[in-house]
Amino acid sequence: MLHVAKSPVVTMAPTTPIYDGIQKMTKEGFRRIPIANPGTRTLEGIVTAIDIINYLGGGKKFQIIQRKFGGNIFKAINEPIKLIMIKKVVSIKTSAKISEAIELMKEKNLGGLPVVDDENRVRAIITERDIANMFANRISGVTVSQLMSKKVVTALQKTTIFEAAKTMTTQGFRRLPIVLDDKLVGIITAMDIIRFFGSGEVFKYLKSGTLIQVLNTLALEIATIEVATIEPNADVGQAAKIMQKKNIGALPVVKNEKLVGIITERDFFKIIEA
């Protein structure tokens, strides 16, 4: 397992302020970070980009800010990360096979698993991207249209960051294609929103507590505009190689300039045989 997983792994202590967690995710480009005891390195939780977006305005965790801090965002982002981490973490042992990790991710609908030793100490992390990259040259023989999701939840040109964050947390998606008359004009991801929260400009607003006006920024302003796409009749091997080369987790599927689906790293799991 360790030869595929990322090791040494970046972890955070449960007492790490939430804003420091945002900065770390922004700097490292990680969508999830295990929370470990700083002394023993034992696994205590995990925090994902979606948990942070949920807390800062997208979902139910936002109610904590209203209830506990009277809406004071600056106080809220200086709280320890344990306030919003997932405590019941699904992990996998260092001795496990890749096939077990794939099955566990499929069964629990997870994008990554901390890898722990027999003492529950965090040794590494394995993500769907690691697995997709590992199999990128072996995935083929199926068209993109056979694996893609046809019902794509999208955003519009006028969708705000706040609305995009809400859709992501309620629908459970990490990315939203932005469309105009069914034509793709951009894509916004959970990590785009994390990078936005981590930028110095937004920090000023967080400090003054006027986050809501910043959240009303158009999602298109922080989205990727030059979007890599693929056609529905292309081989999935081509999709896997594009994702690997560009280090992205999904490709919108376009036919005659119209968005007809989306294929993600998770979709490859349907045909990967480890």
Identify the notable features of this structure and list them briefly.
274 residues, alpha/beta, CBS-domain, 3-stranded mixed beta sheet, 13 helices, 39% helix, flat
What can you tell me about this protein's structure?
39% of the residues lie in helices and 19% in strands. With 274 residues, the chain is an alpha/beta fold. The chain has two domains: 118 residues, CBS-domain (Roll); 125 residues, CBS-domain, CATH 3.10.580. Strand 7 and strand 8 form a beta hairpin. Helix 2 crosses helix 3 and helix 6 crosses helix 12. It is flat. The model has no long low-confidence stretch (mean pLDDT 92).
What's the gist of this structure?
By secondary structure, the protein is of the alpha/beta class. Helices cover 39% and strands 19% of the residues.
| Number of individual domains | 2
Helix content: 25-40%
Quantity of strands, as a count: 10
CATH T-level topology of the largest domain: CBS-domain
Q: H/E series, N to C?
A: HEEHHHEHEEHHEHEEHHHHEEH
Structural class: alpha/beta
The quaternary organization reads as single chain
3D shape: flat
Distance between the termini: 12 Å
Count of helical regions: 13
Strand residue percentage: 15-25%
| CA radius of gyration | 19 Å
The poorly predicted ranges are none
**Overall pLDDT score:** 92
CATH class wording of the largest domain? Alpha Beta
Strand order of the largest sheet: 3-4-5
The largest sheet, given as strand count, sense and whether it forms a barrel, is:
3 strands, mixed
Instruction: Give me the CATH superfamily of the largest domain.
Output: CBS-domain
In the CATH hierarchy, what is the architecture of the largest domain at level 2?
Roll
